[in-house]
C-alpha cells in the first residue's frame, strides 16, 4: 500500500512540511495518536434500503475526534472518509444508492476551527475533503461576515451544485445571490429514483450584513417555489414524476419549545397539499441531539447529534411503500469510532469476503486526512499541554454539589481566579450563565484545544456595587421557574438542555428505561419517536441532572462591609437589571450603573486553574 499525500496540493499554501507516510515507514492508521477505539461492543446492525443516507450535523470543528477519555467518539475525519468510501462501494455493488449529507454548523466549539484567524480557515478545508452529495450551512456560518465570505468562497465553490440553500442569500459585490443552489432535482445512480431537494435554515435573524435569511413561511408564499411544486405534483411529462422529496437543513426536527412557531411542520403541511401521498424525508440539526420523528407514515425525519459523536444512518425501502407491515424508514445512530465503522462494513460485506478489521479499512485518502489533522494540530500549537485533568468534570452527569460536577468546580475554584481590577479586599460575587459552558471536561491532557471546547466565548466582565443582602437574592431569582438566559451563540446549547428537560418533564416515565449493566460502557441511550432502539451500540445510561440557569462564586473578603461587587458578563447584564428592578421595589437600575471589570474569559480562568493545580 502506497500512501500519497493528498494534503499536499490542498494545504501546501497554508502549512509547510506536511508529513507523509509510505509503505516503508510506519503508517498512522489508528485515529489520532494516543487514542484507542472501543472494543467488544454489542451492536444493532444497519438495515439497508434501496436508498441509504449517511448524515452529519453540527460538527463544529471536531475533525480530530474526541481526544480525552471518550473511546466511543475517537474516530477522526480520515476514519469517516475511509468508512464512507467503503460503505458507498459496498452498497452500490448491491445495486443500492447512498447519499452523504451535512446540515451545517462547522465553526465554534473546537480549537481546530477556532484558533485560526479567520476562524475555520484550516478546518473548513479539512471538512471539505469529505465527498458530500448534499451540503448546506448553519447559523454558525452566519454570525460573522468573515465566516460567510469564507464559506462561500471555500465551500460553495468547492461543492458547486451539491451546495443547497433555499432560504439564505449572500451579497456578492452589489447583488444578492443564493447561498448555493435554491433546490436540486436529480436521479439516483442505481435505483433511478427521482428526488427533488430543498435546504432550509430555521428563522435565524442574527445574520451578518453580507447575508440574509428568508423565513420558511415567506418561501411558502413565493411563486417560483409553488410553481415548482405544482409542476412535479401534476406532471405533464413522466420525467417530472418524483419518487421522493428530500428536505435537509439546519432546523430541529422536533419542536420541543411548543410556544415557537413550528416551521418544519408548516413546511410539511404545505408540501402535503401538493403531494398527499409522496414519500418525504427530512434531515435536521441545530439542537445537537440524536432524534427521529414522523409527521405521518409516509415521511420521516432524522437528526444526527453534534461534534462528530454521531454518524446518522437512514434507509428508505420504496418496495414497502404500500405495505403496512414492514417499515419504509430505518434509522440508526452510529457512534463515531473505528470499531463501529468496521463492524458495519463487515456486516454488509460478509459475502464479499472482505475483512475490514485488517488493513482493508484505511483508504489512502482517509490516512492522509488523519495524518494531515495530526500535523495541523501540532502546527497550530493545539497540542500544547497546560496540565493533566485528573478525572471527568461533567455538566449533567452529577448533581450540582458533587465534586465532579463541572459547574461546581467552576463556582468553587475557577471563577474566584478572576483578577481584581480595583479593590483586593472587596467582597465579590461572580456570576455566569450555565449556557456559557459548551462541553464537559474529560480526564486527560488539558491542551490549547480544551479551552475552546469547554468555553469558546469571548466576553467582557462588568460589575455593579450592591448591598450584600440584595446581591444574594439575584442568583435564586434567575434560577426560579422558566427564566431564560440566552446569548445568540448559545441558543443551541440552551435548546439541547431544554429539550432534555422537556423530555424529563412531559414524558412522565416514557423515557428509555435506565440501563445499568456493568459490562457496557456509558453512552447515549437515545429516546426518539420509535423508542429506544436507535443507537448502534448498547450503552449504559448516563444520569442527567438539570443544571441551573446561572451559577456564582461568592467571596467575602471584608466581613465588616455590607457592600459587594457583583460581576457578570456584559451580555447577562439586561437580566441582572431586570432582576434588580424586580427585587428592589424602589430600584431604578440601568446600564450606566455598571463598570468594566476586565476581559479574561472563563477559558482563561480555567487555564489559570489547570496551571496552578494540575500541571
Ligand atoms: C497526552 O500527552 C502525552 C504527553 O505528551 C502524550 O504522550 C499522550 O499521547 C497524550 N494523550 C492524548 C490522548 O493525546
Ligand atoms: C424492502 O422490503 C421488502 C419487503 O419487506 C424486502 O423483501 C426487501 O428485501 C427490502 N429491500 C431492501 C433493499 O432492503
Ligand atoms: C419530457 O421530458 C423530456 C426530458 O426532459 C423531454 O426530452 C421531452 O421532450 C418531454 N416531453 C414532452 C411531451 O414535453
Ligand atoms: C504554544 O503555546 C504556548 C502557550 O500559549 C506557548 O507558550 C508556546 O510558545 C507556543 N508554542 C509555539 C511553537 O508557538
Ligand atoms: C430612572 O433613571 C432614569 C435614568 O437613569 C431616569 O430618566 C428616570 O427618571 C428614573 N426613574 C425614576 C422613577 O426614578
Ligand atoms: C483585554 O484588556 C487588556 C487590558 O485592558 C488589553 O490590553 C487587551 O487587549 C484586552 N484583550 C482583549 C482580547 O480584548
Ligand atoms: Zn450547532
Ligand atoms: Zn445551529
Automatic annotation (TrEMBL):
<dbReference type="GO" id="GO:0005829">
    <property type="term" value="C:cytosol"/>
</dbReference>
<dbReference type="GO" id="GO:0009166">
    <property type="term" value="P:nucleotide catabolic process"/>
</dbReference>
<feature type="domain" description="Putative 5'-nucleotidase C-terminal">
    <location>
        <begin position="392"/>
        <end position="577"/>
    </location>
</feature>
<dbReference type="InterPro" id="IPR014485">
    <property type="entry name" value="Pesterase_C1039"/>
</dbReference>
<dbReference type="InterPro" id="IPR053828">
    <property type="entry name" value="Nucleosidase_C"/>
</dbReference>
<dbReference type="InterPro" id="IPR006179">
    <property type="entry name" value="5_nucleotidase/apyrase"/>
</dbReference>
<feature type="signal peptide">
    <location>
        <begin position="1"/>
        <end position="20"/>
    </location>
</feature>
<dbReference type="InterPro" id="IPR036907">
    <property type="entry name" value="5'-Nucleotdase_C_sf"/>
</dbReference>
<keyword id="KW-0732">Signal</keyword>
<dbReference type="InterPro" id="IPR029052">
    <property type="entry name" value="Metallo-depent_PP-like"/>
</dbReference>
<protein>
    <recommendedName>
        <fullName>Putative 5'-nucleotidase C-terminal domain-containing protein</fullName>
    </recommendedName>
</protein>
<dbReference type="Pfam" id="PF21953">
    <property type="entry name" value="NadN_nucleosid_C"/>
</dbReference>
<dbReference type="GO" id="GO:0016787">
    <property type="term" value="F:hydrolase activity"/>
</dbReference>
Amino acid at each position: 500500500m502506497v500512501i500519497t499525500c493528498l494534503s499536499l496540493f490542498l494545504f501546501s499554501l497554508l502549512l509547510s512540511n506536511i508529513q507523509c507516510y509510505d509503505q516503508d515507514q510506519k503508517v498512522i492508521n489508528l485515529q489520532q495518536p494516543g487514542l484507542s477505539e472501543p472494543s467488544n461492543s454489542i451492536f444493532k446492525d444497519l438495515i439497508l434500503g434501496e436508498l441509504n443516507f449517511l448524515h452529519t450535523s453540527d460538527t463544529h470543528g471536531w475533525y480530530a475526534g474526541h481526544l480525552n477519555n471518550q473511546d466511543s467518539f475517537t474516530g477522526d475525519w480520515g476514519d469517516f472518509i475511509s468508512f464512507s468510501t467503503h460503505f458507498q462501494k459496498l452498497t452500490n455493488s448491491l445495486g443500492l444508492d447512498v447519499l452523504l449529507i451535512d446540515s451545517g454548523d462547522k465553526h465554534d466549539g473546537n480549537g481546530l476551527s477556532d484558533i485560526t484567524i479567520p476562524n475555520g480557515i484550516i478546518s473548513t478545508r479539512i471538512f471539505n475533503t469529505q465527498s458530500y452529495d448534499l451540503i448546506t450551512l448553519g447559523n454558525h456560518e452566519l454570525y460573522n461576515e468573515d465566516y460567510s465570505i469564507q464559506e462561500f468562497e471555500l465551500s460553495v465553490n468547492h461543492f458547486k451544485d451539491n451546495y443547497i440553500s433555499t432560504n439564505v442569500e449572500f451579497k456578492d459585490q452589489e447583488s444578492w445571490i443564493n447561498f448555493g443552489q435554491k433546490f436540486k432535482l436529480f436521479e439516483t445512480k442505481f435505483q433511478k429514483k427521482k428526488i427533488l431537494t430543498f435546504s432550509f435554515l430555521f428563522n435565524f435573524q442574527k445574520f451578518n450584513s453580507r447575508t440574509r435569511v428568508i423565513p420558511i413561511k415567506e418561501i411558502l408564499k413565493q411563486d417560483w417555489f409553488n410553481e415548482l411544486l405544482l409542476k412535479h405534483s401534476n406532471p405533464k411529462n413522466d420525467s417530472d414524476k418524483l419518487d421522493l422529496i428530500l428536505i435537509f437543513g439546519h432546523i430541529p426536527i422536533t419542536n420541543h419549545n411548543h410556544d415557537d412557531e413550528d416551521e418544519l411542520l408548516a413546511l410539511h403541511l404545505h408540501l402535503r397539499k401538493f403531494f398527499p401521498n409522496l414519500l418525504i424525508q427530512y434531515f435536521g440539526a441545530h439542537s445537537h441531539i440524536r432524534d427521529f420523528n414522523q409527521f405521518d407514515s409516509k415521511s420521516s425525519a432524522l437528526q444526527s447529534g453534534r461534534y462528530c459523536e454521531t454518524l446518522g444512518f437512514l434507509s428508505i425501502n420504496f418496495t414497502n411503500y404500500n405495505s403496512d407491515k414492514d417499515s419504509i424508514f430505518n434509522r440508526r445512530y452510529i457512534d463515531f469510532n473505528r470499531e463501529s465503522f468496521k463492524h458495519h462494513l463487515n456486516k454488509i460485506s460478509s459475502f464479499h469476503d472482505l475483512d475490514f478489521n485488517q488493513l482493508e479499512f484505511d483508504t489512502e485518502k482517509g490516512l492522509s486526512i488523519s495524518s494531515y489533522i495530526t500535523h495541523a494540530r501540532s502546527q497550530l500549537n493545539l497540542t500544547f499541554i497546560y496540565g493533566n485533568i485528573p478525572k471527568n468534570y461533567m455538566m449533567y452527569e452529577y448533581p450540582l454539589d458533587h465534586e465532579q460536577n463541572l459547574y461546581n468546580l467552576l463556582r468553587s475554584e475557577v471563577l474566584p481566579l478572576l483578577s481584581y481590577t480595583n479593590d483586593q479586599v472587596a467582597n465579590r460575587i461572580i456570576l455566569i450563565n450555565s449556557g456559557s459552558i459548551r462541553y464537559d471536561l474529560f480526564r486527560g491532557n488539558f491542551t490549547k484545544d480544551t479551552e475552546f471546547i469547554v468555553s469558546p466565548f469571548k466576553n467582557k466582565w462588568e460589575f455593579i456595587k450592591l448591598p450584600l443582602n440584595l446581591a444574594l437574592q439575584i442568583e435564586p431569582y434567575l434560577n426560579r421557574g422558566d427564566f431564560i438566559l440566552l446569548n445568540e451563540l448559545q441558543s443551541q446549547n440552551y435548546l439541547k438542555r431544554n429539550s432534555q428537560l422537556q423530555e424529563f418533564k412531559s414524558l412522565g416515565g416514557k423515557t428509555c428505561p435506565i440501563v445499568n449493566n456493568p459490562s457496557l460502557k456509558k453512552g447515549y441511550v437515545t429516546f426518539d419517536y420509535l423508542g429506544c432502539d436507535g443507537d448502534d451500540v448498547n450503552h449504559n445510561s448516563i444520569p442527567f441532572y438539570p443544571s441551573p440557569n446561572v451559577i456564582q462564586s461568592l467571596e467575602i473578603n471584608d466581613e465588616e462591609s455590607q457592600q459587594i461587587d457583583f460581576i457578570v458578563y456584559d451580555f447577562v447584564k439586561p437580566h441582572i437589571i431586570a432582576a434588580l428592578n424586580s427585587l428592589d421595589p424602589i430600584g431604578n437600575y440601568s446600564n450606566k450603573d455598571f463598570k468594566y471589570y476586565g476581559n479574561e474569559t472563563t477559558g482563561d480562568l480555567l487555564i489559570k486553574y489547570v496551571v496552578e493545580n494540575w500541571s
